[in-house]
Design a protein that fits this description.
By secondary structure, this protein is of the alpha+beta class. About 30% of the residues lie in helices and about 20% in strands. The chain has helices at about 70-75, 160-165, 170-180, 185-195, 205-210, 230-265, and strands at about 25-35, 40-45, 50-55, 60-65, 85, 95, 100-105, 125-135, 145-155. Strands 1-2-3-4 form a four-stranded antiparallel sheet, with no helix packed on it. The longest helix is centred in the last third of the chain and has 38 residues, at about 230-265. It is globular.
Length: about 270
C-alpha cells in the first residue's frame, strides 16, 4: 500500500559542512543558531571577548562586537558553563557566563554591546527560552504579537540570596551560626562554600554587600530647602534608611571576616 501523505523531510540537504571564517587564534566559548540572523558565536581572542554573527547564506561575519567586560571576570569558575541560548529568531538571546549567571546582552546606538546593568541574580542551573505568539489580539492592535518566555532554575546558595535581598536579620543569623562552631569541619566547608558563591558580574559576597549599599538617589539634600516640610521629612527618613542599610551590611561584612579569621586560626 502506497502512503498518500507527502513525507515530511527537507527539500534539500547540505551534504558538505560549510566552514566559517573564524580567526585562527580565536577560542570558541559558545555558539547558537537562529532562523534570521544566522550563527551567533562568543569567542575569546587574546584578552578580548567578541560577539560574532555569521550569515547563514554567505558564511561571512555580519556583526563583530567587543564585550565591555573583562575576559577573566566573564570566564568565571568554569569556561564550559558559558552558554548562548536563542529563541529561534533574532529577537531574544540569553548568555550565561562562566559562573552560570545571566549576562545582559543589550545593544547600544552603534549595534555594539552596552555596559551591562546587573540584575542581581544568582547563577542559573537550567534555562529555557521560547517565543510565544499572542492570540486573541485585534488585527489593528499596536501591541506586540509575540512574547519571549524565559524559565530559570537558580542554584541554591547559602548567604548570597540574603545579601541580594538586603535581609540583614537572615545574614546576621547565618553568620552567628558559623561563629558558634568555628572549629568543626562542616563550618569550615560552609565558609569555603560561601566564599566561592557568585552572582552576576562575577561578584562575590563582599562585592554584593557593597553594591547593595549604594544610595538609591543622587539628589543633594541641600535642594530640599525649597520644598515643604513634608518633603523634608520624607528625604530625612530616606537618608536614615540608607544609612541604616549601610551600617547593617557593614556589620555583616565584619562578622563574616571574623568568622573566616576564627576558622583559619582554629585550622
Amino acid at each position: 500500500v502506497k502512503p498518500t501523505a507527502v513525507p515530511k523531510v527537507p527539500d534539500c540537504f547540505q551534504r558538505m559542512p560549510k566552514k566559517l571564517p573564524v580567526m585562527d587564534n580565536a577560542k570558541i566559548l559558545a555558539v547558537t543558531v537562529d532562523s534570521r540572523a544566522g550563527v551567533h558565536v562568543i569567542a575569546k581572542v587574546g584578552s578580548r571577548l567578541l560577539y560574532l554573527v555569521y550569515d547563514l547564506g554567505t558564511g561571512k561575519a555580519e556583526q563583530e562586537s567587543l564585550f565591555p567586560t573583562d575576559a577573566t571576570a566573564f570566564l568565571g569558575h568554569a569556561e564550559n558553563a558559558i552558554t548562548l541560548y536563542s529563541g529561534g529568531q533574532d529577537v531574544v538571546n540569553l548568555l550565561r557566563d562562566g559562573n552560570g549567571a545571566i549576562y545582559p546582552l543589550a545593544k547600544d546606538c552603534i549595534e555594539g554591546i552596552r555596559d551591562p546593568v546587573w540584575l542581581d541574580l544568582p547563577p542559573a542551573r537550567c534555562i529555557g527560552l521560547g517565543i510565544q505568539s499572542l492570540i486573541d489580539l485585534p488585527s489593528s492592535s499596536e501591541l506586540k504579537k509575540k512574547a519571549a518566555v524565559v524559565v530559570l532554575a537558580f542554584e541554591t546558595q547559602l548567604l548570597m540570596p540574603h545579601v541580594l535581598r538586603c535581609d540583614y536579620e537572615s545574614v546576621k543569623q547565618f553568620l552567628y551560626s558559623l561563629e558558634r562552631d568555628t572549629g568543626s569541619i562542616n563550618t569550615q566547608n560552609t565558609i569555603q562554600q560561601v566564599l566561592s558563591e557568585r552572582c552576576d558580574g562575577n561578584r562575590n559576597v563582599f562585592h554584593a554587600c557593597v553594591a547593595m549599599c549604594c544610595p538609591t538617589t543622587n539628589q543633594d539634600n541641600s535642594t530640599s530647602n525649597n520644598s515643604n516640610n513634608e518633603a523634608g521629612t520624607s528625604n530625612s527618613a530616606q537618608w536614615d534608611s540608607i544609612t541604616s542599610r549601610i551600617s547593617a551590611v557593614s556589620n555583616a561584612v565584619d562578622a563574616l571576616a571574623n568568622a573566616i579569621s576564627a576558622a583559619s586560626g582554629s585550622g
